[in-house]
Predict the 3D structure of the following.
Amino acid sequence: MSWGTELWDQFDNLDKHTQWGIDFLERYAKFVKERLDIEQNYAKQLRNLVKKYCPKRSKDEEPRFTSCLSFYSVLNELNDYAGQREVVAEEMAHKVYGELMRYSQDLKAERKHHLQEGRKAQQYLDHCWKQMDNSKKKFERECREAEKSQITYDRLDNDINATKSEVEKAKAQFYLRTHMADESKNEYAAQLQNFNAEQWKHFNSAIPHIFKNLQDMDERRTVKLGETYRSFAEAERRVIPIITKCLDGMVSAAKAVDNKRDSSIVIESFKSGFEPPGDFPFEDFSQNLSRTGSDGTISNTPKGDRDRDGAPGPRQDPKHPMSRTKNKLWLFGKKPKAPSLEDFSHLPPEQRRKRLQQRIDELSKELQKEMDQRDALNKMKDVYEKNPQMGDPSSLQPKISETICNMEKLRSEIHKNETWLAEVEGKQSSRGDRRHSADNHHHTPQGRESPEGSYTDDTSQEHHTPHKRSSPPQPGQPNPDPHEFDDEFDDDDPLPVIGHCKALYSFDGQNEGTLVMAEDEVLYIIEEDKGDGWTRARKQSGEEGYVPTSYVEITMEKNSKGS
């Protein structure tokens, strides 16, 4: 159905309807704008919430408990979820709200143009009607005048008293009015014919064409609304798969919470390595009292002490553990503070072992850097010797000497700390509480420096200085009593878990520092492969060591940081 044929006389109503259509479109655009503002504010509040509960932490304060790691994984997923809400807002802003506002401006301009054409056509038809109406009124007026002149002429022509000149004059006036009436009649007929033609053209051609354009415009507006309704929904639907992944990530984080693992971390963090205190000996202060049968009392002295009646009271063995730890039971009080020592001897054995191992690892990394720098300088020196125009080889010698000196200092520090570590591990082994610790810089089977300072892949020529750790303390070395650690100690966090792996093959782990694993066993990754073919892993029980990288299938965590 066409507006031009069915609504030919409803110009004003169509004017109102098209204006209502544009107003409705702009109202929907306003709704979309408020909707995307809600999305933007929601995403902003979510990001602020994540930022609030994810404060910046130093490396030593990184969370280690699975419950904490899972919570931060949930926060990361929530942050990604907030990003998807921002994507929804951007999609609505560009593909819905922006498109609607541009289209609204186009509709307004098009509607104005069509209505102006309609008004011009109506004004022209009104002009034709006025011309026709004026000619009609003129014709009517001339006819009345002609009738009056005819009556006057007939009256004078029948009047015997009228003169001939008066009759002739009335006759001439009658003929003139009749002629003017005939001309008015012809003009009226012409104007009437022209008006009818213009009116037919107006209602059968001009107005239908204009109304059809208005109808097309209104229908396109309706189609555009339907398309934006769909775009509004699609903006939400497109992010559903990613949002689902975020939610799945939260569920996976919840499944990763391991109460046993958290309990083992608590043990690793706070275990001192001390032996539990022994029983207090009985101290009999009644030995010097004289007992006679007439007293009528029974001695409360233990039998063993009554046999030695009269002997001086027993003295406490100064070597008894309780005599040395009498004032060092910190169950209910604050531990006394002591200055920090270079060998960490102020710490309990287990914490001391961890701190020494940590320092050895740091020194080994520094040593590796110095070695790499030395190799680079030697290569540059060789290039200068082969191509003197590129530089003076002797200019590099001071830097090479300085690097070698730094390497010797670092080796000395490593050896000193390894001696202290071997001392601690030897004592722990003697108490049956030794924990195995792998050295990731000296126990790898390839890519390490030989005693001469050159690299070799032959394991038989490898420099294994850390093997001293497994030996007991040498004579003459300090052997402090474990109960002398009477100062508070700092927690040393284990390496954070950065992924997990599944064993493809079994590995016996016969070499020191390696880890035994069974086929299909799942391990935690705590240090990536440094290029030597070995990856540092941790078992569910907390035992750590190296496994061949080619023996495992590794999956790194999404937000893990390198060791």
